[in-house]
Each structure stands twice: as structure tokens, then as C-alpha cells.
Amino acid sequence: MIESSLRAILSPMKLWAFLLLFAFGLPASAKEHVILCGGPALRKWENLRVESDRHDRWWANFIRASTMRMDELRRAYGKDASITWIVYRPGYVLRGQEDSKPYTTWIEKQATKRKAKLIWINTGDQAIATINRQRDIINFDFFGHSNKHCFLLDYGSAVMAVSQAWLHERDLRKVRRGAFNKFATCQSYGCHTGESMSQVWKSQLGIKLIGARGKTDYAALTFGKLPTVSGIWIR
Asked: What are phi and psi of 218, to 5 degrees?
């Protein structure tokens, strides 16, 4: 019935293209690629901790990992791929003040360079609202601190070793399942996600979230690679 109605108003070539689109979904350029990026800790707090427990000597671990991932997406999906970069702004404002560097300006330049849509956020609810506005997320990546129950958008900015902004596994019920393509690839490069949050993600959203059992290590960025895990990736 649908085909016969369309045949009356479309040329054979246009009808063929429309039916292919209907059958196989949106073209690759219409797919959404979303990167969620947490903020760094302040050195004034981290320097008070024992050496083995210190984090974020380099302010840009999560930023550099994000831009490397964008470069991968551009190679795989082309220059017109739609990339949304959600970044926790307060962390970079505070670290920029501590280091006397314009980090937020530098981040904006990286987004412009890679033709990514930069969305600044201040809370976990804003991150969820941004995700829910997307229509067909085919790739989702998180770069930031985390524990087994949540993405820590903030960690050690205002208080040592404390988070004031997060996306908890309990909050996943507020994420719109329809924002994701049913074949989406989702991965967290935060520590311990695979120990609980990945399972809740699958239950709530119907798709897998690759996560770490153990800690992740951003030292691999030095060699042009995305973060590694000290344990295993749970897929």
C-alpha cells in the first residue's frame, strides 16, 4: 500500500532510493556520534595524596582521548559525520584558573578544528538532556573518572577525592532508549564501569556498554592510543 502510493508521486529512481532508505535506516552521515567528557582534578588536592593515588598530572587526558576518538570517527565515517562533544565545563574552568591557562578556549578550538558540536554542561542531568536530544546515536564514548556505579563528571575539583557531578547508574532510567541506534557501540574509558554500570546500561537501554573491570590508564595517549585497562574489558 505504501509502495503503490509513493509510486504515484515519485519517479522510479527516487522511489528506489526512498525504499532503500526506509529499509536500511538513515545514511551514515545522519548517524550521531556522542562523546561525553569529564573534568580533571586540581593539583592542589592531588599533591596531598600519596604518589600512587594521584591523578591528572596532565590537565588534558580526557580532552586528548576525546580528540583522538573524533579522528577515528572521521576516518571511519567521513568528514560529514555528526559528532557531539559533551564536556563538563566547571572542571576545566577551575583547572584553568589553577594553571593560569585558557583551557576552555583551547577546548573550543579543538572542537572547531574537528567540526564537532561542543556542548558545555554543568550537571549530570544536563548530560542526559543532551543525549536525549540525539536521534540515532551509533557510537557513544565516555572519557573521565568513574567508579563501578557512575560516570564522575567532576572529581577532586572543589573537594579532594570527592565528586560533585555525575551520571549514576540509577539515572539511566532517565535516558531515552530511542536516542540510540539498536546496533550502537558504547564504551566507557573510566575505571571499573564494567563491574556494575555496564549491566544496568544494558538493562535500561537494551544495548551493551563496554566497560573496564579494573582501572583504566591514560598513559597510552603518549603513544597515540586510547586508554588501556589493567584488568579486562567487559563486552
From this structure: -90, 5
